[in-house]
Design brief:
This protein is of the alpha/beta class. Helix content is 47%, strand content 15%. The protein is built from 19 helices and twelve strands. Strands 5, 6, 7, 8, 9, 10, 11 and 12 form an eight-stranded mixed β-sheet that branches.
């Protein structure tokens, strides 16, 4: 290993990219581990744990620093705050790292980045945290549950307030904890006939395997290596997909020979699943807005196949006249706030806010107004998001039915038995983050009226 390489230095640079440049954390982590592919498993695990840990626990780390610092956290320069948060996370959560080492490495990091005059301050704060870490007092959840969830579980106050009003404190607490839990890789077995061979290959690679919670085709993996090194993923027998996300294609219920339009389709997982369900017969038009996104779809198609999938560069906001009234199924898994996947994309906690949710909900309506016209009478529009937000989910589904000739249809006939409910009978389903060990997800099944009446 390169003696000059520093795991903490790399993690620091990665965190600044997320915070200053607002780059997606999962992209930054993937690129870093690709660039430094020569790192051993231990170093890769350390970098991943520290990087994700600081982002996931950002609000708690700020609270802890504030408990011992004479300078308010909001007045600290970003580099100093990031160095302190890295040190505090190691002290609180990385038991194999001695507190002394966390302090010393943070001081060295500060000095390397021109913060020598503040290195004594960094040292004092981290040593104070080390001394008082077992005496930290968080807000009383009985008196101020929003502040408790923010300071202990890093759930932004605006999210906590909304979720407590809607779901109650206990469910909100469970969702906050789920966002901080480990997330095994979930994959979909594309062909049941290949299950035995897949399990043999996973065992040979040393992967830990558990069955899915509600989808028979799902496996939950604990990996000894990068996912792309597993043979069943390399050759396309497995597809990386969360169990909740698998429901969209299943509930869309496409049939062989159908014409399916999948908008906002990148990276193509749902399009390929639709093709698998259809037995490769028919057409799945997988569309996204940019050549880069279409390239992602094409890359997955090249690796996994999907004989009836055609990738296309198209803006979902621009109506395509020749598609009007032609689709048996339109899959609309639309851009959203992503509150259901904060456990996988922790930077959402830093970047999302209520104003952005308003904007996203309006964008979704604009897209729905266009793509709903592609559905033929009696056809299906499957609307889904990976968030937990009335504006983006239930309210938009209701809006579509009130402005266009659509009605909701029960999801229960298509759902695994454990997910069937009165809510799903009405045509929509909200899965909460961690509820079934899966991501938060919303879906609604909407059918175009056969006899369209003016409204």
């Amino acid at each position: 290993m390169n003696e000059k390489f520093s795991e903490r230095e790399l993690t620091y640079q990665m965190l600044l990219q997320v915070i200053r440049e607002e780059k997606p954390s999962h992209v930054i982590l993937f690129q870093a581990l690709e660039t430094y592919g020569w790192l051993d498993r231990k170093s890769r695990a350390f970098i991943s744990r520290l990087f994700r840990g600081v982002l996931e626990n950002d609000l708690q780390l700020r609270f802890v620093i504030g408990c011992v610092s004479s300078v308010p956290v909001r007045k600290m320069k970003t580099p100093v705050r990031v160095i302190l948060e890295m040190g505090v996370f190691q002290i609180l959560y990385m038991d194999h790292v001695p507190d002394r080492a966390a302090c010393n490495e943070a001081v060295s990091l500060a000095k390397r980045h021109g913060l020598t005059r503040l290195s004594g301050f960094v040292n004092a704060v981290l040593r104070a945290v080390s001394a008082k870490k077992k005496e930290l007092e968080y807000p009383d959840p009985g008196k101020d549950p929003v502040s408790f969830l923010r300071d202990r579980y890093s759930l932004p106050a605006w999210i906590g307030s909304v979720w407590i009003r809607r779901f109650g404190y206990e469910k909100t607490l469970a969702m906050a904890q789920a966002a901080l839990a480990d997330h095994p890789l979930t994959v979909r077995i594309r062909r049941e006939s290949g299950r035995a061979g897949i399990l043999e290959d996973l065992a040979a690679a040393g992967a830990g395997v558990q069955e899915g919670r509600f989808m028979p085709c799902a496996l939950r993996l604990t990996l000894p290596c990068a996912p792309d090194r597993l043979l069943p993923l390399q050759d396309g027998r497995l597809a990386v997909q969360d169990e909740s996300a698998m429901l969209s294609a299943v509930c869309a219920d496409p049939h062989p020979g159908d014409h399916v339009i999948d908008v906002c389709a990148a990276p193509g997982g749902k399009s390929i699943q639709l093709s698998d369900i259809m037995g490769g017969k028919g057409l799945v038009s997988a569309r996204d807005i940019s050549p880069a996104k279409v390239a992602m779809i094409e890359e997955n198609l090249a690796r996994m196949g999907g004989s009836c999938v055609q990738a296309m560069c198209m803006d979902a906001l621009q109506r395509c006249p020749e598609d009007v009234g032609t689709a048996d199924v339109v899959m609309a898994d639309l851009p959203c706030s992503g509150l259901g996947v904060m456990g996988r994309k922790p930077d959402i906690k830093l970047s999302m806010n209520e104003d952005k949710i308003h904007q996203l909900a309006e964008l979704q309506r604009q897209i729905l107004a266009v793509v709903s016209s592609y559905v033929k009478p009696g056809g299906t529009l499957l609307y889904s998001t990976c968030t937990v937000s009335l504006q983006e989910n239930e309210e938009n589904a209701a809006w579509l039915c009130s402005h266009f000739p659509f009605h909701m249809e029960s999801l229960n006939p298509f759902l695994p038995e454990m997910l069937r409910s009165r809510e799903a009978e009405s045509g929509s389903l909200q899965i909460l983050p961690g509820q079934y060990g899966s991501d938060g997800f919303f879906l609604a099944r909407l059918i175009r009226d056969r006899e369209e009446e003016s409204r």
